[in-house]
Amino acid sequence: MSPAASTRPTPVQRFVVMPRSAGREVRLGILWFLGFIGCAFLGPIAIALLIGSLGSVAALQSVAAWKQARIEVDRQVAAATPLAAALASLVGVGLSGFVLLFGVVAAVVMALAAPRRRTAVVARAGVTIRCMLLPTVTAIAVVSMARTSMSGLLVLLVLVSAYEAGNHLLGTDAGSIFEGPIAGIAAVVVLTFTEATFQFGPFSSHSAWILGGLVAVTAPLGAPLAAAMVPRAQDVGAALRRLDTWLVVAPAWCWVLWNLLGRTH
Q1: Containing domain of residue 156, as a range?
Q2: Residues 45, 22: contact at Cβ < 8 Å?
């Protein structure tokens, strides 16, 4: 076996990031929760600025990881697209979709125009898109939910935060990669039962179980997707770790929320 093959990471090492017990990560999670609630009271514009800025920082941190691995990537496009799309979502999904498409085209154009380019255009543009795509889609979904039902978005925040808390508390220093997600899912189920019983927010009991079940199924998928955005799982930046649980949950919830409430913005 060659040295390269022997040092190649396993799928678990490549896509799984175990929770860290560092106090800084816990403090960031609490600040994110409180900041999100504060922005929700201020309105959709504040939510757009918050989630768009976080998406841009996450994209920049991913860009830095690729550059450290000596992979060419265009940071301007990756950084600008999530915030621009979030602000465009205040007008409508159509405009935000156009901004996302423009970002993809801009990534290709920047790769074509790059001086002393060492990699193929498709490869360079692909890494740029890889850094920005999921944060941008997540930002669009969150702002769209804020415009559709702010109370529904706050219910999602509580469910996602419950998953993250359970995942962190039991997943830190755990002997298995499954302990944290299982604890997070259990926390979501408990809160979903509470939501279905007392019907907080705009949901009926039936709708609450549908949406809570959606969080339980999709929340564990976010961390592996975040790891796929960077060269190694250990390269996931602080902003992307704060956003990772939302990567699948937010678009899925947005689509279901629109259908349950009978609105399309």
Answers
A1: 22-261
A2: no
